[in-house]
Design a protein that fits this description.
2 domains; MetI-like fold; mainly alpha
Length: 288
């Protein structure tokens, strides 16, 4: 009886926790998406259904330019984060003696908000920032004006560097956990079968790391697709990333174009949802 009562209480707590998550997280998101969808087709404020806002976006060419730039930045930031995080995870995996202190150093950027990271990038990487001044002091390229622009640059390098700096620690810790749990056992089996160190890295460690970190990689890619604060602070003015384009449409003087901001939000949300579904479908189709 006592065990049954404890099980019932645990089930009640689980249902209450699930209800709290749905109420505090899922419901606001769904309400926001529903309002954005209605506003994007003109069905708020007593309006009638229309696809004119989507048509205007496509005709203007702004959507295509911003979408291409957004996709390129998200791919570059995600790829750079994964490569650096994998290298860090492999290094930490080998440094057993100093692993705890090394993990602490790697995790230092985690509590820094993205907004603060973007502001730091402006102060450090701009043409008159701390890096240029330090190089100028020692007679480096900053003194001759040869330092390449890493903030407000046309290629989005500043955005990529900020997101890599922020996401590498988290992804490295995820990869390290994956490799520690499964990698050592699989490597031991491969070594017993005669595989050398390089072959174990290419045929065992890397596939395990990629498969184990895939959900985290998808999260980073989806986050960068819809992120706003860093592109606004360090990104180029035109064409901007999609999130900044939506902000410009919403805060512009032309109120008739405000609905285009909601249309961009709907398209972004649909893209992220499709990415999540594709990632889950790919993960479920892999052999166990």
């Amino acid at each position: 009886m006592e065990a049954r009562g404890l099980g019932t209480a645990a089930g009640t707590l689980d249902r209450a926790a699930l209800g709290a998550v749905v109420l505090l997280a899922l419901v606001p998101v769904l309400c926001g998406l529903a309002y954005s969808l209605l506003a994007s087709v003109g069905m708020t404020g007593g309006g009638s259904f229309t696809l004119l806002h989507y048509i205007n976006l496509l005709r203007s060419g702004d959507l295509a330019g911003s979408a291409g730039f957004t996709l390129a930045v998200a791919l570059a930031a995600t790829a750079l984060s994964f490569v650096v995080a994998l290298a860090l995870a492999l290094a930490l995996r080998g440094a057993r003696g100093a692993r705890r202190s090394a993990r602490g150093l790697v995790a230092l950027p985690l509590p820094v908000p993205h907004l603060v990271a973007g502001a730091m990038a402006v102060q450090i990487l701009s043409a008159s920032g701390l890096l240029a001044r330090a190089l100028h002091a020692v007679g480096g390229p900053g003194a001759r004006g040869g330092l390449p622009g890493l903030v407000f640059d046309p290629w989005g390098l500043g955005i990529v560097l900020v997101y890599a700096w922020k996401e590498v620690p988290w992804l490295a810790l995820v990869l390290l956990s994956v490799l520690e749990i499964a990698g050592e056992q699989h490597e031991a089996v491969a070594a017993t079968l005669g595989a050398g160190r390089v072959r174990r890295l290419l045929r065992v460690v890397l596939p395990l790391g990629v498969r184990g970190a895939l959900p985290a990689v998808l999260v980073i890619f989806a986050y960068v697709l819809g992120a706003f604060e860093v592109p606004l602070l360090v990104g180029r003015t035109w064409p901007p990333m999609l999130s900044v384009l939506a902000y410009q449409r919403f805060t512009g003087v032309d109120l008739d174009r405000r609905a285009e901001a909601f249309a961009i939000s709907v398209l972004l949300s649909a893209g992220v949802a499709a990415l999540i579904v594709a990632g889950r479908a790919g993960a479920s189709s892999e052999p166990a």
